[in-house]
Amino acid sequence: MKIATYNVNGVNGRLPVLLRWLDVAQPDIVCLQELKAPQDKFPEKAIRERGYESIWHGQSRWNGVAILSRVGTIHETRRGLPGDPDDVQSRYIEAAVNGVLIAGLYAPNGNPRPGPKFDFKLRWFDRLLAHLDGLVGMDAPVVIAGDFNIIPSDRDVYVPDRWRDDALFAPEVREAYSRLLGQGWIDALRHEHPGETIYTFWKYLRYAFERDAGLRIDHILLNPVAASRLVTAQVDKAPRSWPKTSDHTPVWIELGDDKRKRRKRSAK
After folding, report:
1. For this structure, is 204 an active site residue?
2. Which helix (H) or strand (E) holds 132?
3. What is the structure's pLDDT at 70?
4. Which CATH architecture group holds 2-267?
5. Are 59 and 35 in contact (CB under 8 A)?
6. Of residues 52, 92, 106, 177, which has the active-site annotation?
7. Can you give the pTM of this predicted structure?
8. Mean pLDDT, to the nearest integer, of 191-216?
9. pLDDT digits (tens, 9 = 90+) for 56-87
10. In the annotation, is 193 catalytic?
11. How far apart are the C-alpha atoms of 214 and 131, rounded to whole Å?
12. From CA 106, how far away is CA 227, in angstroms rounded?
């Protein structure tokens, strides 16, 4: 099963890019972020014509998350994080699909720092940690995918010293990410590529993509059950080079079934 995350930076404005990528990459399940579309403007019909069922949590002009599936019905389990009834931002959606619990998230940016937006980001991550602590130990595979707006370490950013004061690289948010891993979540890309330079986002300015001056802020986290089925984790850089594209690019993993993993182990 191929599971991907993609911050599309406007699902309607970038719809030709998204549909092209779905045709080429053919992921089974996709988490989308930054829809920038109200609930009634999500392009459900166009996505359904590509063979994908979808659920979404929209918001006018900002935020927005969705889950797409071509491998089974999407059984929604949650939209929005618990813990703050006044939080109306569309940043979290969760569903069971084909035996896997999938959560798609779009974390707050937090800039400028310090300030109210950064304080909200820290509170949001506290709520995320509290919720995910109840999911990591499930007997079923759980996949948390999305734009975390966190650069976990120096090796995840081009010229780290330029980002020391940014909310994406602040010690408090890096510590929050470490706390997530401490719960037992596995960073799929780093698990598969422990020493490599890997980016998922490049600004539009100063030919950042062409110079590979990027950040790694789009992550896929796996609970131990899902990690035991991990076959590969990759960044699909091709869509970032397409015309009128997002400043992010897709990240994807492949999960094998139990029988496949047993065969691989016995072959050793």
Report:
1. no
2. helix 116-132
3. 98
4. 4-Layer Sandwich (3.60)
5. yes
6. 106
7. 0.95
8. 97
9. 999 999 999 999 999 999 999 999 999 999 99
10. no
11. 30
12. 22
